[in-house]
Amino acid sequence: AARNRGGNIAHFYSLETVLQDAEWLELESALRGAIKRDELSLHYQPQVDLRTGAIVGAEALMRWLRPDRGMISPARFIPIAEKTGLILPLGIWALRSALGEIKRLRDQGLPIEHVSVNLSARQLHQQDLIPQVDELLRQADVEPGSLTLELTESILMDDAEYAARTLKALKALGLKLSLDDFGTGYSSLAYLHRFPFDTIKIDRSFVQEMHTQNNGAAIVDATIQLAHSLGMTVVAEGVECEQQLAALRSSGCDYVQGYVFSRPLPTTELTSMLRDHPVFTMSPNK
Ligand code: C2E
Ligand code: MG
Ligand code: MG
Ligand code: MG
Where does the record place the EAL domain (predicted)? Predict the structure, then answer.
């Protein structure tokens, strides 16, 4: 996404923006209705340990099934939820559901180590975020370490001081923090290490470039080595093929998430995968 940083930017309304505004308004009111009608759900994408092939966790990803129009992508409705503040009740709902899901899986003897939930900028700046997350963790009846919150770099940069304090307070609750979409922003890992992240997620664009760009693989490899030397674990996102998998494995990447193993799944399908197929067979390293 294009980002404007400082400078003088001329604002004008093109036909495109007007149409986009109209579409947003329509989506906003539809989204309010959808929440009432329970049209939102969470799908879960398995995260796989590259050494063992075991499913160690899952990322919760919001889905909106509009009866008349099919699936609406979170890339479209999350920004609207952000802008309107609807993300606050939605975010709480997502946290409560994801914690409920991990408890339900464990109760069935299908343990996964953690569930990851995305946290948006608006939520980070919500006054009572810490007591709310604390309360949800208490109600959930799972160890706080079972929850990972994913945040992107752009969320931290508006007010880095505030973000650092808030992340520290979240960590003090016992949960884990993951830096999402790493590499798409402007900051170095050395700088981002000031924030108490346990994990970085290498963005899908870098995974793709491993085999399509000169030095693409070297950049991913160096990122993994640096993250490790800073004491962080590494998840690669959007891994789609065996070739990427092999390269990530030889670079010592810890975990992988992507279509090569599984798309995000409805809870019923996640449950059957954990029951019938909890460990993927890894082809030997080349
Ligand atoms: P994200 O957190 O970076 O999630 C990863 C996205 O990559 C997901 O898109 C996932 O379905 C997609 N993906 C996973 N594996 C592959 C692959 O192998 N190839 C390709 N091409 N894509 C893959 P999705 O589900 O459309 O979500 C988009 C974004 O919406 C997320 O990016 C996240 O920023 C946001 N989002 C989704 N659910 C939530 C939520 O509950 N709360 C908040 N605040 N944001 C959310
Ligand atoms: Mg994420
Ligand atoms: Mg991501
Ligand atoms: Mg993303």
Answer: 24-278
Gap from CA of 12 to ligand 2 centroid (Å) = 33
* Segment 242-283, tens digit of pLDDT: 999 999 999 999 999 999 999 999 999 999 999 999 999 887
Question: Which atom of ligand 1 sits closest to the CA of residue 203?
Answer: 3
pLDDT at 18: 75
CA dist 95 and 98 (Å) reads: 5
User: Within its chain, how far is the Cα of 164 from the centroid?
Assistant: 19
Ligand 3 center to residue 71 CA distance, Å? 20
Ligand nearest to the CA of 45: 1
Mean pLDDT of 79-99: 95
- Using the mean position of ligand 3's atoms as its centre, give its distance from the Cα of residue 110 in Å: 25
| Distance between start and end Cα atoms, the chain | 36
pLDDT category of residue 284 using cuts at 50, 70 and 90: low
Which residue carries 């799908």 as its tokens? 43
Q: Which helix (H) or strand (E) holds 182?
A: strand 176-182
- Local confidence band at 174 (pLDDT 50, 70, 90 cut-offs): very high
Using a 6 Å CB cutoff, which residues line ligand 1?
A: 45, 61-62, 73-75, 78, 94, 118, 120, 150, 180-181, 204, 237-240, 257-259, 264
- The answer to whether residue 1 scores a pLDDT higher than 70 is no
Cα separation, 156 vs 98, in Å, equals 24
What pLDDT does 271 receive? 98
